[in-house]
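Good morning C.,

I know you're traveling, so I'll keep this short. The sequence:
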Amino acid sequence: MENQPVPWNLKDVLLTFIYTAALCVVIIFWSLLIVGGALVLWQHVTGETGGSVREALRGVHDAYFILVFYAALYLAFRHRIVRRYNIDVRRVFFASSAPLKDVWAGVRAYLAFAVGLVCLVLLLFLAAGLLDVFLGTRSTEGVEVYFIASHLEQTEVKPVAQHAVGVVLILVLGPFFEEVLFRGCLYRALRRRFAFWPAALLASLGFAAVHGYFFLFPYVFVLGLVLTILYERRGNLVAPLTFHILNNGVVVALFFLSIK
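The tokens, ready to paste straight into the viewer:
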């Protein structure tokens, strides 16, 4: 990708994050206040405890919080970057002379990534097994514990993926907003000041940190780095977005397979 300068800078991107967090706090506070008041009023009028209503709300609250986050992100992004610099999102981030080739590039990149990941896991278990045999360590047990912990950390997908709205959030809105913000905005702002690798590493570090994982942090960091490299090579977000959607789709599919 040609290192074309962009009008926004790192300060704009950081303020977008700050505005998003502030809006989330405000929206969630008022939502809880309204819902809590409605439950109290329901109990006062009907004499019921509202247990069925609470149970229904408990089933959708995870998807609701994610939806609030992306709504707040959209408002902050629109205010701080789109309107401020009169940005045409489609032209700036997704313009492509060969969109089908970009989609296919995203598919090929994800398939290569998946194969590489499987090979890496197999090599990790092989190395751990050799250490156990020749040095008497318990490396295989440690690797197994790490993957179990990673799986448990990923169970946060469960309550969200159980609803159609949650699946849409994971497969469509999540990848779209994350690609626009981290690759399109943050990475390109960093490229104004740094060479490719420092900018890519910093953007991927931010991408992994925002997800809030501990055991899965290395995976998300590498995922962000691969997406950034793909963006740099293709020059638009079509290929990274395709890759990201496939990755999240596999996560959702594995979740549904694990509960059967």
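Safe travels,
E.
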